[in-house]
Design brief:
single chain; alpha/beta; 2 domains; 7-stranded mixed sheet; 14 helices; binds guanosine-5'-triphosphate; binds zinc ion
Length: 387
Amino acid sequence: MTPIDPAALDPSVWTATCLAQVERAVAELRRGGVVALLEGDQAALLLAAETVEQPALATLQGASTTGKKGEVRLVLTSERTQALQKRGLSLPANLPADDVRVLSVGGALAAEAIRQLADPTVAAFDAQALGVAVVGDVSPAFAQGAIELAKAARLLPAAILVLVSRAGLDHWVDPAFRMEARDLAHWRRNAASNLRRVSSARVPLEGAEEAEIIAFRPHDGGKEHLAIIIGKLDTTRPVLTRLHSECFTGDLLGSLRCDCGEQLRGAISAISQSGNGVLLYLAQEGRGIGLVNKLRAYRLQDAGADTLDANLQLGFGADERLYQPAAEMLQQLGVGAVRLLTNNPDKVTGLAQCGINVTERVPHVFPSNDHNERYLSTKAMRFGHMF
Ligand SMILES: Nc1nc2c(ncn2[C@@H]2O[C@H](COP(=O)(O)OP(=O)(O)OP(=O)(O)O)[C@@H](O)[C@H]2O)c(=O)[nH]1
Ligand SMILES: [Zn+2]
C-alpha cells in the first residue's frame, strides 16, 4: 500500500483515515492477528501477548529468521517487568527509567509461556528458566506503540514484536493492518475526544423524574459517554457535577466490592435535591483498564494485593483514566464551572487541567461494608482520597 501523504489530504480526511487504520489494527490484535507499525524503512510486526496463539507466533518467528533483523521480542511495561522481577525474572541492574521494556525471549518460546509472562493471574511459572535478557535496539516508537495498541484493545499491556524491513512486509501482514508509528500520536489526540452529540432522550429516574440522557460518541467510534442532566440546568452559576466512571459490577449488579453503585444513585439524588446538575457516566470501566482486566485485578486482590498494586502487577498505571472527554462534554453542555461531587483529588486537578473551573469539591462519601472496607482504605491511604 502506498503510504498516505498527510499534506496531500484534507485534514479531516487524513484524521479519519489514520483513525480507521488504528481501529482496524486494534480489532486485529484482539483476534490474535499480526499488525505492523512502520517508521522510516523499518517495520515491526506485532501480536498482542494475551491473544497470541501458536500459528501466528510461528509467522513472527518465520519473519525473524527470514528478515535477519533480529529475534522475537516481548514488550512489557516497566510496572509488569518489576512484578516479574519479584517472581524471579533476573534483569541487569541500573536499567534506564523507561516506561516500556523490550525483552528478548529466545526463538522457541511457546505461545502459552508468552501469555503467562503477560498475565499475573495464571499459575506460577519459572521466570528464570525463560532466560530473558534486555535488548535495547528497538525504536521507542515501536515499543511504546505496541503497548498503546494493546491498551487500546483493552488487552493486557504486553506484545510480541519482530523487526523486519519495510520492503518485505507484503509477505507477513495484510496491508489493512499496517500503520505509521507516528499516526498513533495523532490517534491519541483525537480518539478519546472530538465527541459528537448523537442522541438524547428524556428518561425519568427514581428520585429524579426530570432527567435527560445525552449520548456523546468519540471520534474513533468507541463506546459512547453519557451525560445525565437532572432538572433544568442553570449554567449561570457553578453546576453541581459528578464524574462517574462506569462500573458494571457495582452499578448494575450491586457488587459490594466497591462503592460505585451507592455513589451513582447517591449522586443522582444529591443533584436532584439541589435542584439541577449533571452526572457524566464515563465509559472508563475499571479506572480505564476495562472490565476483563478489572476482573483480573480482583483475582490479584483476592491473593493479597491491594487495588493499586493489582493494577501495577497487570502492567497498568494506578489509574488510566483521561479527563479530556469529561471536560469536552461539559463544554458542549455550556458548563464552564462546576462544584464537583468527589473524594478523589485527581479528578479535581484532572478536570481543571482540561479547562473546567472547579470552584468547590463536594464530598461524596458512603458507609463501607465488610467487602469494600479494604478497597476504601486503600483509596484513602494510597490514592489520597479524602474521606
Ligand atoms: N482497576 C480497578 N478498577 C476498579 C476497582 N474497583 C473499582 N474500580 C473502578 O473504579 C472506578 C470507580 O471510579 P469512581 O467512582 O470515579 O471513583 P474514584 O476515582 O474513587 O473517585 P470518587 O468516587 O469520585 O471519589 C470504576 O470505573 C470502577 O470500575 C479495582 O479494584 N481495580
Ligand atoms: Zn465499582
